[in-house]
């Protein structure tokens, strides 16, 4: 019985590590997809300029990807290899859908993302973009489940 428990705990710990690594890769991919969809280098604007608008937009994008990845893991049903593959596919699909959805929403609403990202003070449009990212992430997450 002790061996069975140890084996189950070992498999569980490996699954956690595998999902954590894949999740981190998808979060980074989501950040860079968002970076490509916005003017300027987000990491530089956040780190050097300490821009609150860029930070809010980037943080909400990463959180939205996190929702999608979490839902993909939840929906995997415990089968590790299939779960990792479905998390990868759903995660990448979610990143693409979120990026395209955000670009479309920004265009329809008429936001000037370039001006927003360069604005030094927190702008209400950044809050709208952040909520939009989270809503798109939530929609994608629920569609996976």
UniProtKB/TrEMBL annotation:
GO CC, one annotated term: plasma membrane
Transmembrane helix as UniProt keyword: yes
Entries under InterPro entries matching the protein: DUF350
Membrane-topology annotation of the record: Multi-pass membrane protein
Keywords of the record: Cell membrane, Membrane, Transmembrane, Transmembrane helix
TM annotation in the entry: 12-34, 55-77, 83-105, 125-144
Compartments, as annotated in UniProt: Cell membrane
Pfam hit, one: DUF350
Domain of life: Bacteria
Principal location listed in the UniProt entry: membrane
UniProt similarity note: Belongs to the UPF0719 family.
Name by which UniProt lists this protein: DUF350 domain-containing protein
Organism listed in the record: Bailinhaonella thermotolerans
Species classification: Bacteria, Bacillati, Actinomycetota, Actinomycetes, Streptosporangiales
